[in-house]
Amino acid sequence: MDLRMHRLVLGLAVITAIKACDPETTGQWNRENIRQSLQQWWKERITSGENIFLFDLNNSKLFPFYQGFWENQDERVITLKNEKLSQIVWQWVGRLPSDGFIYGDLSLLKNKYGNYTFIYPDLKTGLQGYFVNKEFQYGEEVKVRGERCRNGVKELELVVQHPQIIWRREIQTQNNIGSQRQRMDPHERRSVYIGDSTIPGAGEGIFAKRRFQPNDLISYFGGLKTFKENFLFQNMTDSELEDAGSYFYNFGVNCPSHWNINIDLVIDTPHPYRNIVQYRTTLGHKINHAFPLSKIKKYQKKQNISKLASNFRVENARDIPCIHPFLGKLICLIAGMLPNGTNH
């Protein structure tokens, strides 16, 4: 795998001062630079292929990992284990680290259900609880307080955060944006905040709470999964069209084919959910947009509004399809180089 692919897939900084993970010993708990240590470990494992496998979700079988994995439409997920020496298992949720990881024991490879931990791609935040078919069902937020090498596999020290809050799986649909809509996703809460945009006339925007490395997850873009004909109508005024078309993303056309998503499906954030008092589970809809009214009217005249494309005005970032732990398949905003306080 070339350097460009390493950056695309792993989004790793160059780290030289972190001790390698000894395959035959248990190390001391490390509570400094936890994320960098885990990133470096993953980089070494992917490069060497040591203890790395591909797990087939359809038949629960493991296959050898190969370096051309990302160039192919291979739907199997990367799995790391050292069964002879360790009970710990790490498994990618999707094809990219921006989808997060499942962390648990060897039962993860055999059972359809059990108690495991979803680790967000920041490698600092997680959700610990009950899973069915590798999907989080309900549980509590956890913080990664420490990590150590245990027989060649990284072990995590997890601490429960906000035990009074139980997160539950709830896929967003055309009619349901979520019963937890007034809670901020744990990763969002650690990563971004809402403020007045520095772009004139843009209203509110999201700002970075911390420094992001290239390819880091900044924010999730969630909302109602619907179709344009459900909110863009032929009899709308210019102002109504501009308002209705200002908070949606063409989801289906940008999804990988193996997701089997209708290409006309969009993610929309209508009123009143544009107000963070009413919806703040994900904050990607607060990215500043630029939707040309002329383009909306053009397709309105042709009665072909389903072809309207969203036009994001986002600097130093890109949007990609990703998998949220309890909301399911969404869009992620991925970082370029963003200093603290950068506005989108």
Commentary on this structure:
With 344 residues, this protein is an alpha+beta fold. It folds into two domains: 3-168, Histone H3 K4-specific methyltransferase SET7/9 N-terminal domain (Single Sheet), CATH 2.20.110.10; 186-335, SET domain (Beta-clip-like, Beta Complex), CATH 2.170.270. Helices cover 13% and strands 31% of the residues. It is built from five helices and 18 strands. The strands form four sheets. Strands 1, 2, 3, 4, 5, 6, 7, 8, 9 and 10 form a ten-stranded antiparallel β-sheet that branches. The chain has a three-stranded antiparallel β-sheet with strand order 13-18-17. A three-stranded antiparallel β-sheet has the order 14-16-15, with no helix packed on it. Strand 11 and strand 12 form a beta hairpin.
As an assembly, this protein is single chain
CATH topology of the largest domain: Histone H3 K4-specific methyltransferase SET7/9 N-terminal domain
> What would you call the shape?
globular
Largest sheet: 10 strands, antiparallel
Strand content: 25-35%
Question: Distance between termini?
Answer: 32 Å
CATH superfamily of the largest domain: Histone H3 K4-specific methyltransferase SET7/9 N-terminal domain
Query: Please, how many domains?
Result: 2
